[in-house]
Amino acid sequence: MDINNFISLIGLLFIIACAFFGILFLYQSFRPREMKKTIQYYATLLEYSPFPAVIFRVSDLKIIALNTRAADLFRILKEKAISKPILDFFVCPDDLHDIMSYLNHHEKLVDYETRLLARGGRFFWAYLSANPISILEEKAVICGFTDINHQKELEQTLQKNKELYRSIIRTSPDNITMVDMLGKIFMVSPAAVRMFGYNDKDRSPYGMPILDHIHPADRARFKHDVRQLKAGTNTGVHEYRAVRKDGSELYIESHSEIINDNQGRPDSILYVIRDITQRKETEKAIRENEERFVTIFQEVPDPVLIFRQDGTILDMNRQCEEWFDVGKICSLGHKVQNLGFFSTDANNEDQFLKILSLQPGEKYETCIRLADGQERYAILSTRYITIQGDIAILLLINDIDSLTRAYKALTKANHQIGLLNSITRHDILNKVMVITGYSEILLEEYPDAEWRTTMQTIFSSGKDIQHLIDFTREYQDLGVHEPVWQRIDEILQKDVLKSLTGGVSLTIPIEKVEIYADPLFEKVLYNLIENSIRHGEGVTRIALSYEISGDVCRFVYCDDGVGVAESEKGLIFQKGHGKNTGLGLFLIREILSFTGISITENGVPGQGVRFEMLVPFGCWRYRDSCFMRRSTPPAPDR
Questions:
Q1: Which NCBIfam families match (predicted)?
Q2: pTM for the full predicted model
Q3: Is the domain 300-392 a CATH 3.40.50.150 member?
Q4: DSSP collapsed to 3 states, 383-450
Q5: What's the CA gap between 445 and 442, in Å, rounded?
Q6: How far apart are CA 611 and CA 544, in angstroms?
Q7: E strand or H helix at 607, and its extent?
Q8: What would the CATH number be for the domain defined by 30-147?
Q9: Which of 598, 587, 464 is nearest to 531 (CA)?
Q10: Sign of the CA dihedral with 324 first, then 326, 328, and 334 last
């Protein structure tokens, strides 16, 4: 073949290829337009459907058409629903899988019950019917929906009501008995069987007159109450004596109601009966103990006042009469507010309103102004009690006047002593500064060695006095303030301790534990760390941790220094023992002892110190869990 024929053949093949791809392009362009036209045709037909309907492709399960009713059912715009996966509208994806599996083997699916999901998270029950269809040889499914949510809710409500009725009869602790209009039992609850004294082996009370279980002495009254009930007069709850199968007696409280049939005619009587034998025995015990209560009430050494919630006085003891200088006879029936027993406290708060707001066990410390103008400090606490069926408030007034005044006087004296100590300390330091200042001048002016030794001794003694005075200033508040709950990790964040631990690896406890200790507990940590750095000879690591076992908590302090010699372990906490003032570890023990915390050193010499602080029960707690080993810490041992 020559070159010209070859070129002609290549050209012919090129023209054929162009024609093929041109035809393919025209077909592909025509198919989407035809598909879109067909889908629009189906969408138009769906709009005429009387129920919500959706069409989705089988290949990707995406919606290609839906009507307005379906869009409203799913609470979504039609435009936004197109191309969304149909799976997005099923609460349970397995339902769609079951539907597609069924359609693979059957021509159609009718009334498949499923739960669907609408926009906004609302789900509802529906019957789903589906048919496979073909759109231009592409498989699709058309689904119709019937909203049965209301029907489903009614069915569930009815079922719940039936179950509730059965549960009430089965689990009610009260005797539920139904009798016909002649008084014969035809339905009893399990509690009724037990109350009447029957068991599985006995003949049940069915068919027996309910009157047989009423005590003979009360049967006439029972019959009278039944006649009134049948006449349309329901007199409420009645109390009777009843008898069990074995003849033993009990007290019952009965509420009865006429049950009508479908035509409104009286059909049966429902009795709800409660065993009140224990209540009757309790009432008897209360009556027997009333005299004892009155005796105790009058002999309580503190004033006690009983009044209703509106302030009406019901009773008071002799101490209350003496306190407020009133007579019990003249006060009963009057309002507490009108008699001027309480006014306003130091915080301008109405004392009576504060009393009404107290919770059981809550205490309110205040100062009460009496009729003669005197003021007495007291702690008020309340309890709710029942008197003749009415709720009343029992107010206990704990007289702490002498104790409070003594405490205030002691506080004032401590303040004055502290002020005197501060002034005296300031004056002493001024004199010591004169001594140390002149000593330094003399040391510089006189070169004689013997003279310099003497002056150096004077200078050092002056510095020691200055250190001791500074030390007393730091610890002048030891034991003055009440202990508080404190956390080790929070204390170690303070600047004074951060600067002290620079260059040392510090490990802090991970447990969020609080310790109840004197406010000077910070000084304990400071002195321990300073002691390690000053005397540990190259300490590089300090570790603080808790060892908790049951109610026992140990706070442990360790370092990697030289430790404490065995001969020194029993002496380091004694006053004056040490290389400096000899007060550091002594005062650590004193600060801890205010809340009963003991400290010992049991480290290995040469491997570092190990101080163990045993925190007593009630003086430690977990902070975040709100679990407290004891609600109120023990009083400090002063």
A1: sensory_box (TIGR00229)
A2: 0.38
A3: no
A4: EEEEECCEEEEEEEEEECHHHHHHHHHHHHHHHHHHHHHHHHHHHHHHHHHHHHHHHHHHHHHCCCHH
A5: 5
A6: 10
A7: none
A8: 3.30.450.20
A9: 587
A10: negative
Whether domain 172-280 has CATH 3.30.300.180: no
Which residue reads 């049939």 in tokens?
261
Tell me the CATH architecture of domain 484-622: 2-Layer Sandwich (3.30)
Both tokens of residue 79? 């435009």
Distances in Å between the Cα of 70 and the Cα atoms of 2, 74, 89, 115, 414 are 71, 6, 11, 15, 84
Contact predicate 136/35, CB 8 Å? yes
Q: How far is CA 71 from the centre of its chain?
A: 45
Nearest CA-CA partner of 52 in 121, 149, 120, 139: 149
User: Distance between CA atoms of 537 and 609, rounded to whole angstroms?
Assistant: 12
> Chain centroid to CA 409: how far?
42
Question: Contact 377/400 with Cβ under 8 angstroms?
Answer: yes
Are 126 and 114 a contacting pair, CB within 8 Å?
Answer: yes
d(CA 83, CA 56): 9
d(CA 305, CA 302): 10
For the stretch 330-388, pLDDT in tens is 778 888 877 777 877 767 778 888 888 888 778 888 888 877 777 888 888 888 888 87
Residue 10 structure tokens = 């290549």
Question: How far is 101 from 85, CA to CA, in rounded Å?
Answer: 17
pLDDT one-digit tens code per residue, 98-140: 999 998 888 889 889 899 988 888 888 888 999 998 887 788 9
Q: What is each CA distance from 437 to 424, 449, 465, 466, in whole angstroms?
A: 20, 19, 14, 12
DSSP state of 87: G
